[in-house]
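We close this part of the discussion by returning to an individual protein. Part of our work consisted of pairing the sequence of a single chain with a tokenised description of its backbone. No coordinates are needed to read the tokens, only the vocabulary itself. The amino acid sequence and the backbone structure tokens for this protein are reproduced below:
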Amino acid sequence: MTDETQITGSEPGRLSTSDGQTIAYHQTAGEGTGLIWLGGFKSDMEGAKVLTLESWAQEAGRPFTRFDYFGHGVSSGDFRNGTISRWRDDTLRILDEVAKGPQILIGSSMGGWIATLVALARPEQVRGIVFIAPAPDFTELLMWQTYSEEVKREILEKGEWLQPSEYGFDPYPITRDLIEDGRKNCVLHGPIDIKCPARILQGMRDPDVPWEHAVRFAKALATDDVAATLIKNGDHRLSDDQNLARLVDSVETLCWEIEGVDDQAG
């Protein structure tokens, strides 16, 4: 559930939290519906997809915000102390205190789960969502239920297990708190009361999030305005040139559709 990393040079803004931590972010000013990037598990805001979208937003004159969750990237905090609830709350702070106004959320992998939780909490502000390999409930369905009894026992008894990374990172901790908190935030047990338009991009060769998971998620969304694109040769990252162009096109088209509805209503 991770994204690739690239490095940019500008210094981020810092949003202070009530417990003394800081959320690092970058924001591009513009006109129209804002865009917020929500990254994946153990990812940061310097990946190819987010920087491609930021560059497009700058050229299009659209507001764009990207940030690092607690314990990710250049935000403060220890990753092993992070949970789905914590990262959802980080996103709500960015939505309420930095981005403001109507927004389209763009959630990659775990970011799709976080985007879902945020849209449920702020339905009046979230006007649409673009999901990339969405991984709702991944701590339970794609982690816990796939682990061996030995791994489960280690998490329960020791409080964490170090999971090897397939993306070149050091092994990262899967904690008991992450698993238990994830269960409190699961959404696939019934209909998901999201009414805004949703677009899903999903690779069919994704080793982390099976394409069937994305289809199940699409069916669970309450809105009828859902379009899912299955990319036959697509992997989890979807960060080659063709898929980056597909992502930009999906975001741009959704902006036009939402603002066209707003213009007609006005």
